[in-house]
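Example for tutorial group B:
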């Protein structure tokens, strides 16, 4: 976990105290005649409020009412509902044999009647022990701590208590890989919420440990046994293989707790793949770096939209076991790999929108990172940053072709390109995008950094297109880092689809590209577009020039880089890439032990 051991111990003590206090309060309230709950959700931006409570007959009522409606109308509606509920309860009793009516305030008897005749109960709302006038509008009437009385039953009003709006467990769970529930909260946050994990008791095992009901350990069936994990993330062990998991969670905001929810995994814990290509790398990244450093990751994670095709299975990756190309399987590996790097900045390429929202955000948020997403066409880019170190100051994303056509920054470049209509047409057809995020240090507001992330055009003969795209990218990054935020350093990550021998790499490292470079005719004479280009930056590849960052059956080479601003940043350490033996254990990538056809670049950078 990303939390320090001391913090975890403190949280455990707090949770234990909360449970004990809750049990004591529950026993005290029970002895004193505890009030039921009436939950009100009232948001200024919405025209209606919701009111939820349980009637004495056991039925649950969910009402939607206009916020501008007078309170009296709601109370009248509640009384009608209560009357219907009482009538149903009376009918049920009669069918089980008539019994004397012993309830108070909600019925009356007609002369000579054998059964109670229901009368509309008294319904009132009180705030600070005074009845709320019936002409008060709903938005003002339903205050937190008010008391709703229906006949003899009293309800404590809870206005906008913390609540889960979404809660899901992954569909595929493997031993040794973190289980990160997807959750969304309203009026609360994960840090202030409580979590407890349970697993199925093995057949023939001793009596389950769960025995004392509490807000966090209710009366579970005897088939569940409590684990010692009270965190948001649970990592199953080999002992859990074949068992299902259960999560009990209580939403909170640090002061209040809302209604608890439980969910069980639909699948059983599967065996993991054994040693993965990134396990040895994690030995170098066990802890989050100190404030002076920025651990940076760049990784093309292989979009599901490309992995799940017949062409991928039969031509691109025929050596990869089909199940290892399935998204549910690969997500486990990607989550474990990324969380194990304890990074401060993560730039990802080929990110499916659903993977970003359903997998990456829940997993990385649980480990202290927040992310932004930029769609390209079928997939996009994602940048995550550690919340304890950085806040997001601004975003300046662009589409290359749109910026080239419409932004005055690129007027000179466009004037050069229009001289070559065939090349211009091909460049403007490309959907590639650039994601630019300006981050500010949470410890020193004067420290800001420009983080750029891109995935350039992929075709082997598209060298001149990548040169144009890179020229647009660097001009835009200069505008952000010099004009909008003068003097801030730059980290430029991505899959540039260019080896160190290409014109694109030469342009980035040397600051210029001559008009006679061979890449201007990368797709033949018809699309030749000779021009000279220069850029302002002094950039370096932080991880050098590895033999390869992409390794598939028919190709291997270095396509990915983390370019850094040499005037402001320096490299503290580069996390070693997997050995060639590890990469080729299953012939090539992806494989059962590696989720992508690319390899993540990881380095620790230091402010100068």
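The residue assignment follows.
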């Amino acid at each position: 976990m990303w939390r320090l051991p001391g913090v975890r111990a403190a949280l455990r003590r707090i949770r234990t105290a909360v449970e004990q206090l809750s049990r004591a309060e529950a026993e005290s309230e029970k002895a004193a005649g505890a009030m039921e709950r009436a939950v009100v959700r009232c948001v200024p931006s919405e025209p209606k409020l919701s009111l939820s409570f349980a009637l004495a007959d056991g039925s649950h009522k969910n009402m939607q009412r206009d916020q501008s409606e007078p309170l009296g109308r709601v109370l009248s509606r509640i009384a009608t509902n209560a009357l219907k509920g009482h009538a149903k309860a009376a009918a049920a009793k009669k069918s089980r044999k008539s019994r004397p009516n012993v309830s108070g305030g909600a019925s009356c008897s007609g002369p000579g009647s054998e059964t109670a005749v229901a009368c509309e109960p008294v319904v009132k709302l009180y705030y600070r022990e005074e009845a709320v006038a019936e002409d008060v509008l709903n938005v003002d009437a339903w205050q937190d701590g008010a008391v709703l009385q229906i006949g003899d039953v009293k309800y404590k009003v809870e206005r906008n208590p913390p609540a889960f709006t979404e809660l899901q467990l992954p569909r595929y769970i493997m031993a040794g890989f973190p289980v990160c529930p997807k959750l969304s909260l309203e009026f609360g946050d994960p840090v202030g919420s409580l979590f407890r994990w349970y697993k199925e008791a093995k057949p023939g095992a001793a009596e389950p440990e769960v025995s004392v009901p509490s807000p966090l350990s209710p009366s579970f069936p005897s088939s569940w046994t409590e684990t010692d994990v009270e965190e948001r993330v649970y990592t199953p062990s080999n002992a859990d293989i074949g068992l299902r998991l259960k999560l009990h969670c209580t939403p909170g905001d640090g002061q209040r707790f809302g209604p608890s929810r439980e969910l069980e995994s639909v699948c059983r814990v599967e065996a993991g793949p054994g040693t993965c290509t990134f396990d040895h790398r994690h030995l170098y990244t066990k802890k989050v770096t100190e404030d002076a450093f920025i651990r940076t990751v760049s990784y093309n994670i292989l979009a599901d939209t490309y992995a799940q095709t017949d062409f991928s299975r039969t031509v691109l990756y025929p050596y990869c076991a089909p199940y290892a190309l399935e998204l549910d399987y690969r997500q486990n590996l990607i989550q474990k790999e990324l969380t194990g790097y304890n990074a401060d900045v993560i730039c990802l390429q080929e990110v499916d929108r659903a993977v970003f929202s359903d997998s990456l955000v829940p997993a990385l948020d649980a480990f202290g990172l927040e992310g932004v997403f930029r769609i390209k066409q079928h997939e996009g880019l994602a940048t995550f940053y550690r919340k304890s170190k950085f806040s997001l100051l601004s975003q300046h994303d662009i589409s290359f072709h749109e910026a080239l056509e419409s932004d005055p920054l690129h007027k000179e470049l466009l004037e050069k390109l229009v001289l070559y209509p065939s090349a211009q047409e091909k460049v403007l057809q490309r959907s590639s995008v650039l994601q630019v995020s300006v981050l500010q240090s949470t410890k020193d507001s004067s420290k800001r950094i420009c983080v750029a992330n891109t995935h350039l055009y992929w075709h082997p003969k598209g060298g001149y297109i990548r040169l144009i795209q890179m020229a647009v990218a660097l001009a835009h990054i200069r505008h952000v880092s010099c004009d909008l935020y003068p003097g801030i350093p730059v980290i430029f990550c991505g899959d540039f689809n260019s080896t160190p021998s290409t014109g694109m790499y030469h342009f980035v490292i040397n600051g210029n590209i001559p008009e006679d470079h061979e890449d201007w005719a990368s797709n033949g004479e018809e699309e030749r577009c000779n021009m000279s280009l220069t850029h302002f930056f002094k950039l370096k590849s932080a991880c050098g020039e590895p033999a390869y960052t992409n390794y598939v059956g028919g190709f291997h080479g270095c396509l990915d880089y983390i370019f850094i601003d040499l005037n402001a940043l320096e490299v503290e350490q580069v996390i070693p890439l997997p050995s060639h033996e590890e990469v080729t254990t299953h012939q090539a990538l992806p494989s059962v032990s590696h989720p992508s056809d690319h390899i993540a670049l990881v380095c620790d950078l230091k402010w100068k």
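The chain has a mean pLDDT of 89. Compare this with the pattern of hydrophobic and polar residues in the output above.
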